[in-house]
Amino acid sequence: MDKSKLKSKRSFRRRLPPIGSGDRIDYRNMSLISRFISEQGKILSRRVNRLTLKQQRLITIAIKQARILSLLPFLRNSNEKQFERTESTPRTTGPRIRKK
Questions:
Q1: Does residue 61 lie within any of the structural domains?
Q2: Of 3, 20, 26, 100, which one's alpha carbon is 20 to 30 angstroms from that of 89?
Q3: Within a domain: residue 59?
Q4: Where is the composition biased (Basic residues) (predicted)?
Q5: What angle do CA 6, 11, 17 make, to 5 degrees?
Q6: Which domain CATH number covers 54?
Q7: Is residue 33 packed enough to be buried (19+ CB in 10 Å), middle (13-18) or exposed (0-12)?
Q8: Burial class, 59, CB count within 10 angstroms (exposed 0-12 / middle 13-18 / buried 19+)
């Protein structure tokens, strides 16, 4: 038999868990929480995070608590100048006249 046909399985490489045993999942632990949020401010899925179901639930609750307490923004804008006013322009030049 050909050796290339025997080794059809992919090699499995064990990765380190994203949350260590000493890490406490809490809304105050911002360095831990920020790893599980996307650039837009969305909570990343369990598949992306490589978390257990229990860990994902605890992370989600911690992120929501931090958002409510204003420790984290609900949205992260890539364009921070989006809400700034550039110039104040007058809307009307004279008194308003109704047309009949």
A1: yes
A2: 100
A3: yes
A4: 1-16
A5: 160
A6: 4.10.640.10
A7: buried
A8: buried
HEC string of the chain? CCHHHHCCCCCCCCCCCCCCCCCCCCCCCHHHHHHHECCCCCECCHHHHCCCHHHHHHHHHHHHHHHHCCCCCCCCCCCHHHHCCCCCCCCCCCCCCCCC
Cα 7 to Cα 24: distance, rounded to the nearest angstrom = 41
Q: Which residue type does 38 have?
A: S
- pTM (whole model) above 0.85: no
In a domain, 20, yes or no: no
Return the pLDDT at 20.
75
* pLDDT of the residue at 60: 95
CA 31/CA 19 separation, integer angstroms: 11
| Residue 53 included in any domain | yes
pLDDT along the chain (100 residues), means of 10: 58 65 86 90 91 93 94 76 51 68
